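Appendix B. Chain record.
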Amino acid sequence: MSRTILYARVSTADQTIAHQLTQARAAGFAIDDVVADEGVSGVSTRLADRPQGRRLFDLLRAGDVLVVRWVDRLGRNYQDVTDTIRDFMRRGVVIRTVINGMTFDGATADPIQQAVRDALIAFMAATAQAQAEATREAQKAGIAAAKAEGGKYLGRRPAFTRAQAAQVPDLAAQGLGDSAIARALNLNRQTVIRIRCDPAAAAAMLDRWGM
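Structure tokens predicted for this chain:
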């Protein structure tokens, strides 16, 4: 029986797993399972080298549908993204994107359709890499500007509030597991684990941002 699996890579405070899942469902996808990596750089880490990325390769079977917000979730650069998509298509996996509703299916037999499909993959992968590089350069410029002005780069904005951080140990003390706490507080499971394991670091991050 085929499944529809959402892969989410969470790298910024405004890209929670819950948000990406909501977007996928709003786009009409009936998601059977979610595989997610949090805090993993998309511009420096191949999908196969990410903790949950490796699990994704093990999970997907012929006939399954892989849903991603955009093709940049699937690799660190143009070559990596195109190689990953083609690898999945050779396995019989259909890749679909939430943004623009693109579909990449290796079952296409018509050579013209194959050419159009491959051109779209190449174009979107190149666009994704260009956007990632532009974002990285903007971040570098922001850090340099902060240092030049005598300020301090604050790092990534916390994906949780002080109230949420305070509730994590309380819910854990009540016997709730990390996944249950994440659902109750609308947080990513990995965020819950980080807060639970190092509440002082979580509090320091909030302090840096004045939250």
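Further analysis of this model is presented in Appendix C.
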